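Model it.
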Amino acid sequence: MYSHSYGNSPSNQSKCPFTIEVLGEGTLAAPPDRAVAVLGAITEGQVLQTVQSENAQIVTNIIEALLELNIPKDKIQTDDFRIEAQYEYIDGQQVFRGYKVTHLLQITIDRIEDIGIVIDTAVSNGANTVAGIQFTMAQPAIYENEVLALAIQNARQKAETIAAALQVNLAAVPSQVQELSRSAEPIPFTASLHMQSAATPVEPGQLTLTATVRVWYLFG
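Modeled.
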C-alpha cells in the first residue's frame, strides 16, 4: 500500500510541495526464546473453607515443584484468583450448588525448551487447568530494528517506482520519516490436559514482526 503527493500537497509537506509520500512496510519471522504459561487449580465444593484450603495446597505444591525445576521465584506470580458461588435453576428456582475457587499462576520460562516439562510438572502436582501459553522474545530489539530497516527499504523502492514513472529525480535522503507502528505479536497456544505425556510436545513456531513507516522524499 502506498500513497504519493506532488505539486500543491495538502499534507504536512505543503511547505515543500515537490514531494513523494509513501508508506513502507516490513515483515520478518523470528524464533521466540521465551514462553509465558498460565496454569493453576480450580476446586469446587459445598464448604468454602475446605474448597479454598484444598486449592491453596495444590497451588503451593505447584510452586514448590516449579522452584525445584530452577524456575526463579520472581518468574512465578498470581495471574488470577477468584472465589465464586455457583447456582443452578431447578423448576424455575435458584438453587445453591457450592463454591468454586480458581487460582492461576503466570510462569515466565526463559528456557523455551523447558515448556513441556514445566506443564507436566505442574499437572503432576495438581494443576487441572492450563489457560494458555504465549511465546515471545526476551530481547526483541535486534529483530525490531531489522524489520524497521526493511520498512524503510520498502518505502524507498516505492518512491523510486513513482519517481521513475514521473521521470523525475528522487532525493537520496528522505526529508521526513514517521514510524507508524511496529509490533511482534506473541504466539498464543492453548494447551489441553488431554495432551499429557512423558514430555508434553509444544512447538513454539515463529513470531511475526511488522513495521510501518510514512516517508517523504523531495524530487526535482
